[in-house]
């Protein structure tokens, strides 16, 4: 049953609190009670029904395969038992039974090690069991990770036809444990098709009020409030709020727009009874649908109010270095580019990995995961392949944009249903079966068609952004004006956002930034709100900063002043003026200078000569200082970072010439199974890479088989394993033994906080690496032995 | 709550920082303090001697081994403690690693110092609640002969997943990364400082800090 936004719906109160009162012992699980004391469970349900609850939550909060592992019961058995008890209690009433679904108890990637796909499977099992057992609806609750909530909601929507409630737990500052904001939750879950959303647990009703008010501003869905009985005493965990105080505070939540009301930890049937009484005569507040377009990550909500810059650089078109990174599966490069764009002021990033030879359907979702782990801005998923888009939409955490749909029947039919299902915003290109129209009127007509078709599918109007298409002015000069006219018409007549790939205007002309920024200013004046540009081009971002002042978006010129207060009045002296050598720049960790000097050096020097003659001796200098205690880890890494900037220049130079990348050899690195602390392994990786080795980084919590597979497939000569905890040493040993049993076994080096030379020997490792410098020495030794 | 910079430097293995390094560590500390506050929860339970160790009956936790025996010898109460910097620290660290590895290791060290400062703060709070009792040193699963596998019991007893968002992996590693479980005893008799300093550390034979001449005295 989908809740009526115009009528209150009374939910139940706590189950765990009641079970504890009835005598459940510490260490016993609630789910176990479905089998051992079904009479207790039934009596609790009955008490809530008698108190006025119209929905009762079956005792299935932790009924997932992971948490039931040692219970002796399957998910299906547990869910069936719990739903049956609830059904018995509700017999003869119109009370609805909800399948209660809590967190899995294991954190998802990138924070933890559980993949989104595995989380989905765990939830799918519960949802299917719940629907078969006869639940009337699904209540996903107490979520603190929006990604996990998404996995659960997708599983509920795809595997059942039941209505779905989703509630998350926030702190008083309006963030979940993973930093998710109320706004991000609202837009993401509504987009994914939740029937009602809200907040439960962790706070009392008083603390919940500002959060419910915030939620109301971001969604018109029915809102759920199921708070605790106040805040627990930190020493003993007991709740002290009375039922009447709770009911009073809940009334304020009802007046703020919550319609589905109940209690969580510390509440009992008396709380529900008093809540029911206090609602008599109160009318639910009418909700208005928000009309501002919105995209987000969990921690970065982005309402589109004003000009929002979309970074264009995550795209292989015309970029040899980017193409090479795609061919090598080098996602670290994509992440570095993304971080540069974000730091330069991009509000969202377009991401396109389409290139001949690339399996976009596999790579785009992988890129999305890698980017979202490190760069906190919303993404615009850019592909011509609907399957790749769907794969990326599935794993995106938050609300993304899709680039793009166009006016062709094929595109409208393939793309818009995906946009609707996953709750994204979408860019609509004003072209159709006949290509790009020559006049603004024709482009407007296509824009209108796209907006209408999206609307017919239930995609909110504000979530369709129209791209009136920039053509190259040197080739089709009159089209610049048509594009600008179309932007104006779409902005004023359709009232939707417009997107433009601005840089395309200046292709083939000298002094491109001048033409690009002149066109940008005209487009912004015509109404463009979402320019797709290179945010690392200073002129472009300066122009946008100026426009934001003139349009009034940058209030009191604050951002403008900040931007230019930072810029030093006189240009810094060049490295040559400072008599800085490339080696010095590396030693001192001056990345920008090192890159500049490397570019100069490459004009007269071969790439490998630069690596061997300058870069490595400089790194060795810092390394020797580090070993002697004259330099510390941050200095060693700063030098490595500067060396990385030099390598970037070398790779760009080689890619331009169409040469293979330089590599002294490929090393597999992994943090062993069970271990999730990987900064040590990442330090080793940084240093090895900047000595010219290629590192195949398998990540953290890597099972022995996967490491062995990677070694076998790449015929790898050296593998490095890291472990931080004593409990993961057995996994390390198992991996070493497995690697040594391969037909062509690699040398294996091990390291990490708990590994000693003795342990290393005992587990059969070939080398013990006490730190990153030692790993370099080992690599040198391995490859010099290979050569002889 | 502030980050003790000297502790962060110690984790970095730095004895006499040059002004530039010191400024960079301080900048990381400030950025961390701006975005994250350590959160903690604790629970105080009666403790009794049991044939297999020390039992916290209410929390269903048994502390086996010599270390617990020595620490709890004269205690009638124990405080179970969980402190974390939360997932936002891990996100900050990932973002830093994508940009600047040197900054990342400094942030990591600041995080380690910060979560310990959070534990200190919780410990002061506990001490203030029991002005007539003496606290033992704080110690943790994985320390001495107290099994790391107890972390799960801690999380359950403190409802750590629901209250602070802390989970453990199958190998008993806590996530988020900067999370600490600890226990301390409360006694009516003055307690000697036992655990401070390198002397009791299981890793002392191989410690990178000691190798670089950095010692930690009680």
Relevant terms:
heterodimer, A: 788 residues, TIM Barrel, Methyltransferase, Methionine Synthase (B12-binding Domains), Chain A, domain 1, eight-stranded parallel β-barrel, B: 218 residues, alpha+beta, NADH Oxidase, four-stranded antiparallel β-sheet, globular
What's a concise summary of this model?
Chain A has 788 residues and is of the alpha/beta class.
Polypeptide structure, described:
The complex is a heterodimer of chains A (788) and B (218). By secondary structure, chain A is α/β, with parallel strands linked by helices. Chain A is 47% helix and 13% strand. Chain A is built from 29 helices and 23 strands. Chain A has an eight-stranded parallel β-sheet. Chain A has an eight-stranded parallel barrel with strand order 11-12-13-14-15-16-17-18, surrounded by seven helices. In chain A, helix 13 runs parallel beside helix 14. In chain A, 55% of the residues are buried. The mean pLDDT of chain A is 93. Chain B is of the alpha+beta class. Chain B has a domain of 150 residues: NADH Oxidase, CATH 3.40.109.40. Chain B is 42% helix and 20% strand. Chain B contains eight helices and nine strands. Chain B has a four-stranded antiparallel β-sheet with strand order 1-5-9-6, with helices on both faces. In chain B, helix 1 crosses helix 5, helix 2 crosses helix 5 and helix 4 packs antiparallel against helix 5. The radius of gyration of chain B is 18 Å and the shape is globular. The interface between A and B is large, with 67 and 61 residues.
């Amino acid at each position: 049953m989908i809740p009526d936004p115009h009528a209150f719906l009374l939910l139940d109160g706590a189950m765990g609190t009641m079970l504890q009162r009835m005598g459940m012992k510490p260490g016993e699980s609630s789910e176990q009670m479905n089998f051992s004391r079904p009479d207790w469970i039934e009596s609790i349900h009955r008490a809530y029904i008698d108190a006025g609850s119209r929905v009762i939550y079956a005792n299935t909060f932790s009924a997932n395969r992971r948490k039931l592992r040692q219970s002796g019961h399957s998910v299906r058995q547990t869910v069936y038992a719990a739903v049956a008890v609830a059904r018995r209690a509700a017999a003869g009433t119109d009370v609805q039974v909800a399948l209660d679904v809590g967190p899995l108890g294991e954190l998802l990637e990138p924070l933890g090690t559980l993949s989104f796909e595995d989380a989905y499977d765990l939830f799918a099992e519960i949802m299917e069991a719940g629907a078969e057992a006869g639940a009337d609806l699904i209540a996903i609750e107490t979520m603190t990770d929006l990604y996990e909530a998404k996995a659960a909601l997708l599983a509920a929507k795809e595997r059942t036809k039941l209505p779905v409630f989703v509630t998350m737990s926030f702190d008083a500052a309006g963030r979940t444990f993973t930093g998710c904001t109320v706004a991000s939750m609202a837009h993401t879950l509504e987009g994914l098709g939740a029937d009602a959303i809200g907040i439960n647990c962790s706070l009392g009703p008083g603390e919940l009020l500002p959060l419910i008010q915030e939620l109301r501003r971001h969604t018109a869905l029915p809102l759920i409030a199921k708070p605790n009985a106040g805040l627990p005493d930190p020493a003993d965990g007991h709740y002290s709020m009375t039922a009447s105080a709770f009911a009073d505070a809940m009334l304020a939540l009802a007046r703020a727009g919550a319609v589905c009301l109940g209690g969580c930890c510390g509440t009992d049937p008396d709380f529900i009874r008093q809540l029911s009484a206090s609602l008599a005569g109160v009318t639910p507040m009418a909700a208005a649908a928000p009309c501002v377009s919105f995209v987000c990550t969990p921690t970065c909500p982005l309402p589109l109010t004003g000009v929002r810059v979309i970074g264009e650089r995550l795209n292989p078109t015309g970029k040899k270095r980017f193409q090479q990174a795609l061919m090598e599966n080098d996602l670290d490069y994509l992440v570095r580019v993304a971080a540069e764009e974000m730091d330069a002021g991009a509000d969202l990033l377009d991401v396109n990995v389409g290139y001949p030879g690339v399996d976009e359907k596999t790579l785009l979702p992988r890129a999305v995961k890698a980017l979202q782990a490190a760069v906190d801005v919303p993404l615009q998923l850019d592909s011509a392949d609907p399957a790749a888009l769907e794969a990326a939409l599935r794993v995106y955490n938050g609300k993304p944009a899709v680039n793009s749909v166009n006016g062709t029947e094929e595109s409208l039919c393939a793309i818009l249903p995906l946009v609707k299902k996953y709750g994204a915003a979408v860019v609509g290109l004003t072209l159709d079966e006949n290509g790009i129209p020559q006049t603004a009127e024709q482009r407007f007509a296509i824009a209108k068609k796209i907006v209408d078709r999206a609307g017919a599918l239930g995609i909110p109007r504000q979530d369709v952004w129209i791209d009136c298409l920039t053509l190259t002015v040197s080739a089709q000069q009159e089209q610049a004006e048509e594009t600008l006219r179309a932007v104006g018409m779409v902005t004023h007549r359709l009232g939707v956002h417009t997107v433009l790939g601005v840089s395309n205007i200046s292709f083939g002309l000298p002094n491109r930034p001048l033409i690009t920024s002149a066109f940008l200013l005209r487009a912004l004046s015509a109404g463009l709100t979402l320019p797709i540009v290179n945010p690392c081009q200073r002129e472009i971002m300066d122009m946008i900063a100026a426009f934001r002042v003139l349009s009034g978006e940058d209030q009191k010129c604050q951002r403008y002043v900040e931007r230019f207060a930072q810029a030093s009045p006189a240009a810094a002296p060049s490295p040559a003026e400072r008599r800085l050598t490339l080696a010095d720049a590396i030693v001192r960790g001056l990345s920008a200078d090192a890159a500049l000097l490397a570019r100069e050096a490459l004009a007269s020097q071969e790439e490998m000569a630069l690596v061997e003659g300058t870069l490595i001796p400089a790194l060795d200098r810092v390394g020797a200082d580090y070993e002697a205690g004259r330099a510390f880890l941050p200095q060693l890494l700063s030098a490595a970072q500067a060396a990385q900037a030099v390598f970037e220049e070398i790779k760009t130079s080689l890619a331009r010439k169409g040469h293979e990348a330089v590599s002294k050899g490929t090393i597999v690195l992994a943090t062993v199974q069970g271990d999730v602390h990987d900064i040590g392994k990442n330090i080793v990786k940084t240093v090895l890479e900047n000595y010219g080795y290629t590192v195949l980084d398998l990540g953290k919590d890597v099972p022995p088989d996967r490491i062995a597979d990677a070694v076998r497939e790449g015929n790898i000569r050296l593998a490095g394993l890291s472990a931080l905890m004593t409990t993961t040493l057995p996994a390390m040993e198992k991996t070493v033994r497995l690697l040594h049993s391969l037909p062509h076994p690699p040398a294996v080096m091990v390291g990490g906080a708990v590994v000693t030379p003795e342990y290393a020997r005992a587990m059969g490792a070939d080398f013990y690496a006490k730190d990153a410098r030692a790993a370099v020495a080992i690599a040198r030794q391995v490859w010099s032995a290979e050569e002889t | 709550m502030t980050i003790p910079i000297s502790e962060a430097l110690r984790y970095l293995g730095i004895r006499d920082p040059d002004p530039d390094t010191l400024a960079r560590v301080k900048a990381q500390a400030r950025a961390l303090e701006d975005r994250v506050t350590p959160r903690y929860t604790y629970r105080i339970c009666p403790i009794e001697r049991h044939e297999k160790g020390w039992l916290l009956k209410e929390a269903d936790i048994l502390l086996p081994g010599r270390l617990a025996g020595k620490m709890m010898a004269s205690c009638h109460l124990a405080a179970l403690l969980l402190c974390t910097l939360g997932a936002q620290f891990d996100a900050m660290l990932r973002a830093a690693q994508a940009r600047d590895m040197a900054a990342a290791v400094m942030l990591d060290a600041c995080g380690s110092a910060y979560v310990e400062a959070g534990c200190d703060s919780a410990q002061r709070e506990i001490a203030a609640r029991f002005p007539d009792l003496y606290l033992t040193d704080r110690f943790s699963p994985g320390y001495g002969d107290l099994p790391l596998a107890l972390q799960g019991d801690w999380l359950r007893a403190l409802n750590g997943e629901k209250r602070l968002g802390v989970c453990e992996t199958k190998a008993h590693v806590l996530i988020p990364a900067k999370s600490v479980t600890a226990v301390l005893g409360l006694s009516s008799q003055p307690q000697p400082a036992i655990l401070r300093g390198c002397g009791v550390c299981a890793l002392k034979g191989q410690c990178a800090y000691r190798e670089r001449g950095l010692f930690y005295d009680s």
